[in-house]
Amino acid sequence: MSTKLKILETALKLFNENNSQTATTNHIAKAMGISPGNLHYHYKNREEIIFKLYLQLRDEMSLSIDELPKNIKELNQHEKLLVKVQWKYRFFFRELLFLFSRDRALEKQYIKDNLAHRGRIKLVIKNLTTSNELEIPNEASLEYLVDSILMSWQFYTSHMYTLGHTLNENLSEAVIANTTNAMKPFIKDK
Amino acid sequence: MSTKLKILETALKLFNENNSQTATTNHIAKAMGISPGNLHYHYKNREEIIFKLYLQLRDEMSLSIDELPKNIKELNQHEKLLVKVQWKYRFFFRELLFLFSRDRALEKQYIKDNLAHRGRIKLVIKNLTTSNELEIPNEASLEYLVDSILMSWQFYTSHMYTLGHTLNENLSEAVIANTTNAMKPFIKDK
After folding, report:
1. Distance (Å, rounded) from C-alpha A187 to C-alpha B93?
2. Interface touch B97/A161, C-beta < 8 Å
3. Are A163 and B111 in contact (CB under 8 A)?
4. In terms of CB atoms within 10 Å, which of B20, B30, B123, B145 comes out highest?
């Protein structure tokens, strides 16, 4: 693995263990046994490392339009992948709005990507009405359902944390159950 | 206003403007025109200030059991108050899980209070079934609805922010609309 990639991997580990602010670039360099100068040859500062980690996470979770789930079974499969990516980059979702306040370029990029992500969720839900698995009475219900699914993906694990649940790799069940519950009132032939 | 309270007010203003980490206790003292020593006479460190601000916010939003909303109209009224408190202490909700990673005593207290808060929401929903406004088919639906309402209160404004909405004092409409949408499938005589 190149030093450039190894820095990202080490930073991710340290950020996940506690938070992104207690692990300085000096800590990251020390944990790898390289000099701070060597680290700074690859990355200007911690914000650049976090931005690169975000781009990695985005690439790992994104599907192209023609790969989108076409039925609830495929959707659940895809959600399992999403939850794994979320767990891998868990510091990012824990600190989301705080990280935005530290780096407005990250905020701008995330919001742009998130709007596209929301658009893809809407397409998936429309696929599920086409395949006759869901019946959505009106546009307002559609918008609400899309937001519920996106909010679940972004914040449901944080929500569980605020209720004292210990988070671990096997979160997929709970997140998928939450999404299923959101869709339940719209499932045909219950 | 006492210096002790004025410190809290100044810290809250600075935290809301950007985040809780860029405003050090030295910045807070400087903004008030007092010495760092004077500030530290009242509060040991920034964590103590944040903890006190959390206790304030908790007291401002809490209702005793006999004041809980008994119908949807009263619930909407109460939500208007909750959203105002949330806006006043907005840095806190933006940084929630990050703040926990900085102060495990805060995390412990918040989770304890949040579980009690969840219990009160459940009581309110049960009131709404008693008053015949809602019909909840089973325990699983009840738990899901209670979580949806609590998650909405904790994270819906953050969710809106991740979609590029500018947050302001008039958030109540959107948060109340989200809660109403969550209850919609269970409202009787739609």
Report:
1. 33
2. yes
3. yes
4. B20
- Mark which residues 124-153 of B lie under 8 Å from A by CB: 140-141, 144, 147-148, 150-151
ipTM of the complex: 0.93
**pTM of the predicted model, to two decimals?**
0.94
A185 and B185 within 8 Å at the Cβ level: the answer is yes
pLDDT at B190: 52
Q: What is the pLDDT of residue A190?
A: 52
Q: Is some CB atom of chain B closer than 8 A to the CB atom of A113?
A: no
Q: Which residues of A touch B159 (CB under 8 A)?
A: 147, 150-151, 154-155
Mutating which of B54, B92, B101 best tests the A interface, going by the most A Cβ atoms within 10 A?
B101
Q: Quick one: average pLDDT of A82-87? A: 91
Convert the pLDDT of each residue in A26-63 to its tens digit: 999 999 999 999 999 999 999 999 999 999 999 998 87
In our burial notation (b when 16+ CB lie closer than 10 A, e otherwise), range A42-78 reads: bbeebebbbbbbbebbbeebeeeeeebbeebebbeeb
Q: Is the pLDDT of residue A143 over 60?
A: yes
pLDDT at B3 over 70: yes
CB A20 within 8 A of CB A48: no
